[in-house]
């Protein structure tokens, strides 16, 4: 036993012995393709300089204040005064010299001269030499503005290098020994972000010498700090345009006097629309609880990049694996967090300061297009609500005078050609008379388009015919176009090129944007760490119940992993709460699998509406068949026509359990229906299989779903397997009647057939993945006899390979499932986990079963 654990620990050590800041595996990152040279989103000068002109909350005005700062609170807040641009020219010293092309003649220099100087530096020199010479083209004032422009990102980037940077600054007599000691103490106490923030504030409060020394330190540390290297690479690549952008001081544009009143009305309207946050319950007396948005909103972790993973898995499972990768990347300092107020007018807006050679022929400024991705239920729509609320109350985006927010699910009602003017006028009638005036100041406009994955129209950004066919061109707000052409033209800067656009989407629709001109890519990761616990304590008024529910979740690896997603937390809280609030509850019956959890969620809805239900089995079968069609075609939004196809009536969704099971959203022009979460839709689709009397082709349907490689049926199959378990079926049978016995038998036979075939075939990664998925199905089924029958005589389980490309990465959830499978075997002659990147949490899940393994690879 000890030898086996030691072997696994040693393998884990070998797999994790990579440099802390090594370059990430590019195969795991979704990288938008290079933009064409005709890109038009490169010139929003107003956007860029706003980040430069904003005063950072922790900056020091006077170099003499540094000593007093050290003893003050860590939340440094003072006023920064920038160096006078022409004061001394601040010639670069400490190895970085003033060049003839960088004379302190005002704050702006000749762009062609700069580009020519830059070309001269690009010889056969190393990256660090090139960057040093690039910095030499900045005078002291420009370097100050550059540092300020990147200050928020530098705080993250240098966390692991504060002590070394401070040492160099102390050696060069820019810092005193006392200042260095304070920074060192903060670093050693684990407050690395605080120490990096303090270091930058101190440097910004001192003269140009300190900034020169700090950037020299960055050059030396560049190879070991991934995020720092990323910033420095951006500075090199953006060249002269970046120097101009950080140097020219542009303030927030004023609203014209005749537009002040209409802007005030617009902000008041949006604030009223967004100030309340509604949280659904499944109770008859209190269907919805309403809270102030500012009181209940919890900031989610958002990163300024997209990680690539072919969507061959359901998002729930993919996210479980991605979280494990995220933790490793975070340790190596490779992920940059981004706040929502930095999506525009900040250094993250990569396309906003492209060199002039990469801009379009027009000299007019172009806005920024930003995309925020996140799986279903992660909080994209609530994030949009918070952004609109914060703008309307003056907290963010002062450069935008007007913000227009649309949901794609609402736009689906439009089947005829329309105009942008009409879209705005219908949603904001009070703006109809001032649209022409608004379009004159495009750079002050922000369009928010929420839920691209729900859009039923087709948008092909790679289709060049959109730019040549007259009927598809949409270059003016009054042009009548298809809605898809309007959206395309806004994002591609063909329509109102000066405006900015924010798009949200699930990852499944990101391929639509692969050829789009996007400046900022971001992804919502969801709850991390203690944020999960915080959610449950906010959900329950009784803190003892909250603690008991979260304790149960913590003990169940499957449920805990789900808690990265606010929607899953909501389902968990609704489903588990009753088990810990009833005086005589049966704690041993608390759900332990995902299927059991969702079974109790539906049970809770049915139990609150048992008096008012008519033919609940028949209604659930119909809604389940509609849900299955949606899963098959990747459709999550339904309309009245869809209801009629399955003999459902819209009136049925005004009361009873259907009102809780399906959300109904109505607008002036249309009504749409959605399940609260995609996973609920998948569960109801699986449930319908056990209610239908037609069982003849079930195995054929299951085989077809299992062969689908895009992941759309993966969780559906989890639930089908799980509902074959009496533990998951019994609560629902109380209201829906007995499940069809033939269906349960057919599912068990299908599982047995799949397991026997796949255990023998593990040569490829795809085959290993299918075996692991089938073991997940077996775990959900909780069928001891079936597991013993199929796994009892198994001698070899292979998930690894000496080549990491042919091995599976196993997450803690996977390890739970593998551990159970091993436990059901008589004896395992060989367990191959080589190159499976099992981390400590996964190892803990495996240990209990490893005594059955004779050989561990």
From TrEMBL:
This is NACHT, LRR and PYD domains-containing protein 12-like. Residues 1-44, 347-369 are annotated as: Disordered. PANTHER family: NACHT, LRR AND PYD DOMAINS-CONTAINING PROTEIN 12, NACHT, LRR AND PYD DOMAINS-CONTAINING PROTEIN 3. It is found in: Inflammasome. Pfam families: NACHT (PF05729), NLRC4_HD2 (PF17776), WHD_NOD2 (PF17779). Residues 9-28 have a biased composition (Basic and acidic residues). One of its GO terms (biological process) is inflammatory response. The keyword Iron does not apply. InterPro entries: LRR_dom_sf, NACHT_NTPase, NLRP_HD2, NLRP_innate_immun_reg, NOD1/2_WH, P-loop_NTPase. Keywords: ATP-binding, Cytoplasm, Inflammasome, Inflammatory response, Nucleotide-binding, Repeat, Ubl conjugation. GO terms for cellular component: cytosol. It comes from the Eukaryota. Residues 368-509 form the NACHT domain. Coiled coil: none annotated. GO terms for molecular function: ATP binding. The keyword Protein biosynthesis does not apply. Its main location: other. Transmembrane segments: none annotated.
